[in-house]
Fold each of these.
Amino acid sequence: MLRTRASFAVMTLVAALAAAAQVQAVPWEKHMTDGNIFQNQGRYLEAEQAFLRALAEAEQPAQVAAASNNLAAIHNYLGRYQEAERFARRAVGIWEKVHAKDHPDLAVALNNLAGACYNQGRNGEAERFFLRALNINIKTLGDGDPETARVRKNLAEVYSATRRYPEAERLYQQVRVARETNAGPQSPQVAEVLNDIATLRHKQGRTAEAAALLERALAIWEKTVGPAHPSWALSAANLGSIHARLGRHSVAGQLFERAIPVLETALGPEHPDLGAILGEYARVLRNLHRKNEAKQAEARSKAIFEKAVNENTVARHTIDVRDVRTAR
């Protein structure tokens, strides 16, 4: 199973201050700044606490919306999809009252709401919200804007998850070109879309191409955010999945062993993605005849998924390689 991540948008301090220009609440400003820094570093649990403090300090509707939007993004990253949806709907409701119907702030919140729906397996709703956000961004920011690319990438994930591969391919390539132009070919933004294209290639049975794309993504992550970042870890786990699929269990095990501690720190020990990765790691361990360790990984994976099912936080758009005919 290869994993993609919808790209969630937190409001930067400049945008948030512009939205909340009616009052300058210094504590709110500081907490928003801290949260943005933590989020960019992949320190999502710390970002959550900073944005919660910002929400507590918010005095104006726009400040509440900005903090709620950012909490929606963080909860999406942390696998708390119902909470993400709740915060995103709150932000959307405020922006619809504060702004015109085609304001970029509304598009940011719609993107995060769509991501929460997608992560709960509600692809039809997700597509509608992503399309609405995309149309707003194209109209107000332009077709080549980074925020337009963000939403377009997320819409491509919906198409990939629903096996509309030609549509996903078209959007992913548009995003890749836009990000190479805006941020450079060795940027984290490009690494993110390379990971997603690799996932699409794996679904199409083009495993060698998928592996090459993931190697490129990992090299970029190494140079930019470093191997302690969860984005690096997710790409490493994806590459581990491919090596396991090809019978290269020793290499796969090494990648999983580097990725898992990073994800535990950044996402918490009960994230659904971590549960899936532990399940794959357990199968690798069995092939390496490390049965006791395999049992431990299996038990952790099972416990995470049981909790996720009870809380309705399983990302149901992910599909195990054993459930499809083409390699993934």
Note: Residues 20 and 68 are 13 Å apart (CA to CA).
Amino acid sequence: MTNARPRLFDKVLVIDQGRQIFFGPAKEARQYFIDLGFQDSPRQTTADCLTGCSAYIPLTTSSLTKVKTTADPDERKYQPGRSAEDVPSTPAALAQAFKDSKQYTRLQVDREEYNKLMETEKHDQDAFRKAVAEDKNRHVSRNSPYTVSFWKQVAVLTGRKFRLQSQDNFGLVTSYGLSIVSLALLNQFFKAKLTIACRLWQLSLESLSSTSRTRPPEVSPVAR
């Protein structure tokens, strides 16, 4: 992923083994991990940098019970003079470091402001819901998001389509004319098909009748 794609997002969420280790503006994510003590590679994209800071690989110490994790040395790198001893390295330590950061504090403030905004606008929301409920057709379910029934929508859209087509008189006449001609040709086709079938049936009956008339009479044996 190039550096252009992260710029398309307002915020980015980084998770390490199910723990939230960063959530905030995408443009601040890279610098946040650099301030923690991770090394910044100039040729590394922002996405690779974020995944590298949370790159953990499992190390199995027992085939039955114990599984330990450690940082991937090919992905995670520390600044000169820094190490896992003084830089948050485990998922729990990274999650706690995020909770102690200014980004987390700002996140809580934004959430409280949003909740307050929803409380102040609750009156407007209730008024809007009441207006929608009053505007609903009597045949529409109360839980339906639509204000008119399905058949009413079909009727309105059909009338709208007819009014749009009526603005083009030439196209409308041509369309209806072709439809009438097509129906007439189709009717003649079925009539001709039925006529041919009836004629064939009549010929077969005449053939059977003539065969029965020309059959020679049976001669009964004469007893000697």
Note: The two ends are 114 Å apart (CA to CA).
Amino acid sequence: MTTSLVLGPLVRHVDEDTAAIWVQTSEATQVTVQLDGHDRGWSAPTFAVHGHHYALVEVTGLAAGTDAAYQVELDGVPVLSLREIPLSGWAGVQKRAFDLVCSSVGMPGYRKDKSWSSAPEPQA
């Protein structure tokens, strides 16, 4: 059986020069995080809790304000690559506005008088 990601990756903590990446895997393994533009990777072995395997990879030595795509490897095999999405900048703002407008059209509990209610309308 090959090791696979069960959950994650999740960015758990970020400060000026570090980031912590959390994953859950299907079995014990070595988890490596590779950042675009960096020659080295950061690794951590999984640890087990009640038969579940987790890893917290501490990415250190980053320049302040680093914004980089990254790849997760399990025992040296790439399993997930997070790259910049085309919806950054104004495209992302437009997409978010579109989502908000479309989702507001069919919101349950939204009454014509623009007030929210989870209770039935009072009967006269």
Note: The beta strands are 5-14, 19-25, 30-35, 41-45, 47-49, 52-59, 70-74, 77-82.
